[in-house]
Amino acid sequence: MEAVDQLASAGTFRVVKEPLAFLRVLEWLFAIFAFATCGGYSGGLRLSVDCANKSESDLNIDIAFAYPFRLHQVNFDAPTCEGKRREKLSLIGDFSSSAEFFVTIAVFAFLYSLAATVVYIFFQNKYRENNRGPLIDFIVTVVFSFLWLVSSSAWAKGLSDVKIATDPDEVLLLMSACKQQSNKCLPVRSPVMSSLNTSVVFGFLNFILWAGNIWFVFKETGWHSSGQRHPPDTMEKQPSSYNQGGYNQDSYGPAGGYNQPGSYGQVGEYGQSQSYGQSGPTSFANQI
């Protein structure tokens, strides 16, 4: 408890308020929702077959299915309305690839978000010590953004196919008894797909979060910092070239002829030529 208090008092957990770590926490939560709503799904439907001979009818045909949606392995028995004989049928389709791919990406994204958040909080100095940590973080973020887009799109298409394959009206067409007009085949209960729809929504929300976090991770890399440092360096070098030039040096003061007080202050011959002004009128008067 003392160690936790010291970390909290030192402001270690303030990094969670920054966009980089805050988005990681959201990615961690949304990844949980994504794989929980898809990987934990189980549903079913119920059908009714009312034969012309009432004794052969089956009004409660329950068909259960679940993740990973290998529907071709879901078997059920249905009456044929031809004596006591029953036929063994199965649903159509195998949609495990898209569902398992989606859940796998969600699990790995959950683990990476958790690990990155721990690094941001407890090892922030080591993370920013050199450029390797931010670069790895940036590359992984870009890869996960792409994988979230692909897996969510694939799972959205797979879910659409699952809905069609588990539609009670489509399943009734598989029964031979329902091909006879004298028999009445009706859907009793349809599968509830709300959690699967939610999983697709969370999949695309995760893509938006990871794609938006690319900018904040990029700001931690040396690529962004080097791009920000070069313009100030060039601007700093330009004034130095002017200051080192001849415009502000004292060479034009004592060394040049413009600011030397000697040439204009000490008149030289022109200052001593006042003798011409003093002796001229005296000699002219003596001569007269």
TrEMBL record:
<keyword id="KW-0812">Transmembrane</keyword>
<keyword id="KW-0472">Membrane</keyword>
<feature type="compositionally biased region" description="Polar residues">
    <location>
        <begin position="237"/>
        <end position="251"/>
    </location>
</feature>
<keyword id="KW-1133">Transmembrane helix</keyword>
<dbReference type="InterPro" id="IPR008253">
    <property type="entry name" value="Marvel"/>
</dbReference>
<feature type="region of interest" description="Disordered">
    <location>
        <begin position="227"/>
        <end position="288"/>
    </location>
</feature>
<feature type="transmembrane region" description="Helical">
    <location>
        <begin position="200"/>
        <end position="218"/>
    </location>
</feature>
<keyword id="KW-0325">Glycoprotein</keyword>
<dbReference type="GO" id="GO:0030672">
    <property type="term" value="C:synaptic vesicle membrane"/>
</dbReference>
<dbReference type="Pfam" id="PF01284">
    <property type="entry name" value="MARVEL"/>
</dbReference>
<dbReference type="InterPro" id="IPR001285">
    <property type="entry name" value="Synaptophysin/porin"/>
</dbReference>
<feature type="domain" description="MARVEL">
    <location>
        <begin position="15"/>
        <end position="222"/>
    </location>
</feature>
<feature type="compositionally biased region" description="Polar residues">
    <location>
        <begin position="271"/>
        <end position="288"/>
    </location>
</feature>
<feature type="transmembrane region" description="Helical">
    <location>
        <begin position="101"/>
        <end position="123"/>
    </location>
</feature>
<feature type="transmembrane region" description="Helical">
    <location>
        <begin position="21"/>
        <end position="42"/>
    </location>
</feature>
<feature type="transmembrane region" description="Helical">
    <location>
        <begin position="135"/>
        <end position="156"/>
    </location>
</feature>
<protein>
    <submittedName>
        <fullName>Synaptoporin</fullName>
    </submittedName>
</protein>
<comment type="similarity">
    <text>Belongs to the synaptophysin/synaptobrevin family.</text>
</comment>
